[in-house]
């Protein structure tokens, strides 16, 4: 059995004491707060750990994949944005990060948003068990789990929440065009304008994004990318290339927040090794 934990060194905030209003109104903290989220690393052999699998002590935020995901909220430390431990009923939080982006327009806007990466509990359990449970610690160290994850059919959601910057849907559309366009080119060559347009056109002018809005980018079974704004589906596009390109922004080779990616990597490894 694989144990899937939330080994964050900062105590996650108990959901019970965070009101929805607080979550919705997470505000800017000063830039440069250096506290991060660190993840404990475990280098013991996979087999040893699997053999001796027991909860040695109650672990705040830990969970066993066989028992379902624990809904423990986690705060992105630099921004103060709080992410629920679980979304869509069964997707557990793998890690959180921060992205600063200058949005070009009439007036350039410095936009800061926090993001959380979630994976479906049973998908990730199967994925880790099938591919990694028998690897030695050294093999595991050399394995690129997030790379495999991006190419797999595991359901993953990236949740974006603005920290500051007054955003128009147009600037969001342009920002995605820029970032996702670069990734589509990287993985699929230059002939992907139509795919990019299909994705970005979902962010049409009818949608408003007041402060506290949340965009979910969800890779679902069959490589369908489903986009929601504040819980409302704005569209879905079936494309493995698009799913791969979106995830690459957050957990790929050149992620927006390398600490977040590192945390997610470590968390996936620790889900196998603990
Ligand atoms: C309502 C949450 C809005 C979050 C801001 C999203 C801005 C677009 C981001 C495009 C991808 C990127 O380059 O970071």
Automatic annotation (TrEMBL):
Residues in domain Chalcone isomerase? 93-264
Give the signal peptide as a residue range, or say none if absent: none
* InterPro entries tied to this protein: Chalcone_isomerase, Chalcone_isomerase_3-sand, Chalcone_isomerase_bundle_sf, Chalcone_isomerase_sf, FAP1
Q: Which Pfam family, any one, appears in the UniProt record?
A: Chalcone_2
User: Which protein family is it in?
Assistant: Belongs to the chalcone isomerase family.
Record's protein name:
Fatty-acid-binding protein 1
Species of origin: Tanacetum coccineum
